[in-house]
Amino acid sequence: MTGTNSDKQLSRIVLKGFKSIAKCDLELSKLNVLIGANGAGKSNFIGFFRMVGQLLEQNLQVFVSRQGSPDALLHFGRKTTEQLEFQLYFGNNGYFATLEPTQDNRLMFAEESFWWNMSGEREIGKGHFETKAFVGTGTRIDEYVLSAMQQWRVYHFHDTSDSAYIKQPHGINDNAYLRSDARNLASFLYLLRDSYPASYQRIVKTIRLVAPFFGDFHLRPSPQNKEVIELEWFEGGQDIPFKAHLLSDGTLRFICLATVFLQPEDFQPKTILVDEPELGLHPYAITILASLIHSAKRQVIVSTQSVELLNEFDANDVIVVNRDDGKSSLRRLNQHELEAWLEDYSLGELWKKNVLGGRPSR
């Protein structure tokens, strides 16, 4: 198991009362692969990071409203769970928060603080409805922690329908980073082609490994409006550009994933999170995806249902998610404890045999 960068990567998470996760205390490493049955709680774990992202953007109450109410976020609602608590550790630094539901269906900070193991907690407020983390503590603790948390990104490329944002024209200058649903993929690749050609070429060559018919992207301002751009591509040996809707769903998703993991280091989030990246991919594409994940210089957290993807990792990289009596539990595997099994079976085979857990249970 590869360790984390103590300042910039999440080393431990304590989470209580979030959706199916009644209680969780989990050490995180550079590679973190979540496996489990449908409904076990993998997506809820990754969804927590989305909530923190909205919290940091001062959008907590909007997020709560869009979820339906605080009861949709609290484990079995406020009658069962009075508070949502979390502690996020980055080596010697940390950020803690406790959220309580209110009568008008908001979440209020009952406590918000930073932590440093040499001086303990430093409270930054209570009774407020949006974070006070950016007010400043007068120490460098908040700088370390916030810079890491702000550079988490949860990617989700499930929507490849005709109305998906990735297939629509969008602003050509929307290229500061690759958005979570890749809606600005064309403008981001346009920037990489012109300013980071080595990274761009690595992306194109990797796509060709999975889709040999693919020649290159056709990236240009729209002839009708120079302020927008649309994702277009060439087939190998041809000069007629095609629109994104002529790419298969699996190919389009792989293009997004290749861009995530091969983007220049300057753009890479400190922690990359992807929910079920294998969706729609051919087994060979899954092997290439695994190599991209292994080569990432950042912390990676992925959830998967794929035996093929699981087989590409070590046991120490894997976190098993089980759900019993409505409660999700998360447990990291131990390579040493499985050595005898791994002499004869792959991780995927052990998963299917229910040696690892993470399978449907009655």
From TrEMBL:
Record GO biological process: DNA synthesis involved in DNA repair; double-strand break repair
Domain of life: Bacteria
Single GO MF descriptor: ATP hydrolysis activity
Sequence ranges assigned to domain ATPase AAA-type core in this UniProt record: 179-311
Protein name: AAA family ATPase
Species of the source: Cyanomargarita calcarea GSE-NOS-MK-12-04C
